Amino acid sequence: MNGPVEPFKIKMVERVGMPDEQRRNNAIIEAGYNTFLLKSEDVFIDLLTDSGTSAMSDYQWAGLMTGDEAYAGSRNFYHLREAIRDVLGYTSYVPCHQGRGAEHLMYSYLVKPGQIVPRNMYFTTSKLHVELPGGRMVDIIIDEAHDPENEYLFKGNVDLKKLQALIDEFGLGKIVFVNVEMNVNMAGGQPISMQNLRELRKFCNDYKLKIIFDATRSSENAFFIRDREKGYENVPIIEILREMMSYSDGCIYSCKKDALVNIGGFLATNDKEIFENTRNMVVVYEGLHTYGGMAGRDMEAVARGLREGAQYEYLKYRVNQVRYLGELLNKADVPIVKPIGGHAVFLNALKFLPHISRNQWPAQTLTAAIYEESAVRSMERGAVSKGRDKETGQNIYPALELVRLTIPRRVYTNTHMEYTANSIINLFKKKDTISGLKMVYEPKYLRFFQSRFEKISL
Ligand code: P71
Questions:
Q1: Is the CB of 136 under 6 A from ligand 1?
Q2: Which of 118, 226, 341, 405 meets the CB 3.0–4.6 Å disulfide criterion with 47?
């Protein structure tokens, strides 16, 4: 099996070094066994996230030089507006510094205290921005998504029966909009089908409910629709994207993923009221409505990246590189979430480390062990990320206790994938020697970023 052939050549490189065993052991202790607290210099292959870690193209870099840094009415604002219209089909947008800036504006406008926001699985920052104005996020993803072994091809789908049950239980008045994520991150990078989107739109029309997308990884989702859904085999990605977006009333978008940039975000909509209200609030929290926290040059890079990131040849390579890593691990019986996702390979920590109990944080433990073994940095996506129940204060143990090996776009070679797979396979062979962790520091918000742990001896 070969890795996918890259549809680009490399014009510039950045040195990375392998820290020796002693340095790795010290670094992980100093970081409180939390990979978010490691110094990047102590990391060899950084698979913490695909967010803001892409390599930009020469065309994007050239675009930086055309940045118009006028306070108001920058030409790059209009370039980005054109790109959003062409690629996603929304007429209006509000630029923001990154995705959570857009979430803040969108959800603080739409969510009122006591309201419920159904969503096809939570994402950490999204959930928080629904909770801050007094709302509650409720999961309506299909059951298959909670089973790491289930190979259903559209595990991102919404379960309309769960949505109906919420309406029956709480009444329509409590639900203002349905929140739908593309290529659902916490489910393992799993797509939603066009058919499901179409059915959801019809359902919401009947109840006059709005639909707001988290379109962050919509291009990778569009690739899967083309690859897997009948009738889309030969449809250009941009047409698929526009059809997807046509089923929504607006979206939030973190440009740091599919738009191939290091910073940036926006919200986009065809709804006049949402647009006017969020455009008003952007000047309070982000910056004037023609830059929203981005420099003119950043907006140019996003405009170009949004188009590049929707090219079929690029997406095919991208998704296949992730699949390559996943298949190397799968062939060696390392437990991973299936099907292999669009942006990352997820290890099933409950199967990898069955001897470690949930209150000793198996996924967190595994991220630290992978780093110590190989200097590869991964991310916990399990109970530490999920946090505590808002009412009872108790830890929540979600069905998925995962480690995410997230592949930056256009950054690592297939040999880097092979090194990563071999290191994890080696670790899997001696998994019984790995002991659990106890949490010794826990901050109030988004605890996974800054919490600290100590090793429990075996
Ligand atoms: C990822 C991130 C970045 C991140 C965020 C929180 C904890 C750890 C890492 C960011 C997303 C996302 C989705 C679906 C909104 C945001 C926020 N993902 N929606 O996966 O995946 O965007 O980071 O630009 O503010 O590593 P932002």
A1: no
A2: 405
Taking the complete model, does pTM exceed 0.85, yes or no? yes
Residue 397 annotated to the active site: no
| Cα 365 to middle of ligand 1, angstroms | 22
Nearest CA owner, ligand 1 atom 22: 99
**Confidence class for position 289, pLDDT limits 50, 70, 90:** very high
Whether 51 is in the pocket of ligand 1, judged by its Cβ within 6 Å, is: yes
Distance 128 CA to ligand 1 centre (A): 12
Average pLDDT over residues 85-94: 98
